[in-house]
Every structure is written in C-alpha cells, then in structure tokens.
Design a protein that fits this description.
- By secondary structure, this protein is α/β, with parallel strands linked by helices.
- The protein has one domain: Rossmann fold (3-Layer(aba) Sandwich).
- Helices cover 28% and strands 30% of the residues.
- It contains three helices and eight strands.
- It has a five-stranded parallel beta sheet, with helices on both faces. Strands 1-8-7 form a three-stranded antiparallel beta sheet.
- Strand 2, helix 2 and strand 3 form a beta-alpha-beta unit.
- Helix 1 crosses helix 2.
- The longest helix has 19 residues.
- The termini are close together.
- The relative contact order is 0.22.
C-alpha cells in the first residue's frame, strides 16, 4: 500500500513561516544583541541558516549561527541502529548569549532535550528559546516551542517530511500517511 502524501506548506508558505518566526524572534528579544542561532542537524541547521538570512534582511545585521549534533545525547541511542555522529560547529562562546535552538519538526521533545544538554555542555547561555517549523504534538517531555511556523496535530503513525532543495533551502512540508 502506497503512502498518501499531502502538501501542508509550499515554498511560499515555508517562506512566510520563516519570515514570521524571524519577526517574532526580533520582537521578543528586542533586536539581535547577544542573539545566536543554533540549528539542530540536519533539518534544523538548514532552517537556522534561512532564519539567519531573513533576520539579516530585516535587521540589517548578521546573527551568529552554529550547528549542533545531538546523536550522543539521545536517550534512545541504543534502540537506533548505526546513527552517524555529525559535526557540531559553534565557533563562538555561548556564555551569556540568547540561544535560539532551531529544528524542523517538534514531536516528542526528546531531540530538543538532547540539544539543550549539548548546548549546556558547550557553555551557559543567558537563555535558550526554541524555534520550529512544524509542531506535530505528542510530547513525551515538558518541551514547549517559543516560535512555531505551523501547528499540525498528527496521528502517531503519520510522518512529517520537510523537503530541502540542493541549496538546503526548505521548499515544502508534506504529511505522509501510510
């Protein structure tokens, strides 16, 4: 039986969501002072790069950007076979900074918990906020995003897929039903 694929956001919808998130981040943090974006590998890293570009367009200032791999911080590492460990690249201190963690899809909250632990191992930020493109519910941990592109309640057996082009720009979001 083939999976049914439903387009939730097209490229214009993704761009509008990223633009809205960028404006909300700037408003809540009163600009870009001490603000850094940390994308969770891989989809979150791509979206953080897009947010960095959008914030620069709006504010006229660059925001520091880094990526973090949470593989070794996962609490389900034993149940996942052959997870490749990726590169963490945060070439600036995190101490006393406002860290915006960025991911593409928020589901159980376990990846975000792992990301917060990884960030705290690197430095002690002033605060950590969470920006996500899609919140699909089903939290297993008390994790709540600060910035959401789209709330999309799903069934546990459904999947969300964010499609990126060859330049790692988010192009669409699809719901997959089996």
């Amino acid at each position: 039986m083939a999976a049914e694929e439903i387009e939730i956001l097209d490229s214009d919808g993704v761009n509008r969501a990223i633009t809205r998130i960028a404006h909300e981040i700037l408003e809540k943090n009163k600009g870009v002072e001490d603000l850094v974006l940390v994308g969770i590998r891989t989809g979150g890293a791509h979206l953080a790069a897009q947010l960095q570009q959008k914030i620069a367009e709006i504010e006229g200032q660059d925001v520091l950007f880094g990526t973090i791999d949470v593989t070794l911080y996962r609490d389900d590492l034993a149940s996942r076979n052959n997870l490749a460990v990726g590169l963490t690249d945060i070439p600036f201190p995190l101490g006393d900074r406002k860290v915006i963690l960025v991911d593409d899809v928020l589901f159980t909250g376990r990846t975000i918990r792992a990301a917060m632990e990884a960030v705290m191992d690197i430095g002690r930020p002033e605060l950590i906020q969470l920006a996500i493109l899609i919140d699909r519910g089903h939290r297993e941990l008390p994790i709540r995003p600060d910035y959401i592109g789209r709330n999309l309640p799903t069934a546990r057996n459904e999947q969300i897929e964010v499609d990126f082009d060859d330049r790692n720009t988010a192009q669409a979001v699809h719901l997959l039903r089996t």
